[in-house]
Amino acid sequence: MKKHIRLLFLTGFLFTMLMFTNQTFADNPPPPPSGHGSNGNQAPAGAPIDGGLGILLAMGAVYGGKKLYQARKDKQKDTNDLPV
Hints:
Layout: H1 2-24, H2 50-80
């Protein structure tokens, strides 16, 4: 029981320290650029995530389908191997 409490405490402590480390290394936001936006000269909006997100979702669906197919195939193989 002591090992479980120690492991739980250590995990919580490390998680808490990781959360503080993220805030420690964070920089202040840069000052606003001068002259941009006043006459239509604005900075680019940023990179779109549309294409990459779609690819990741498709890859996840294919991987999940493969795992589901393999699990059903293994289950069917196990039920066919049982003696009658």
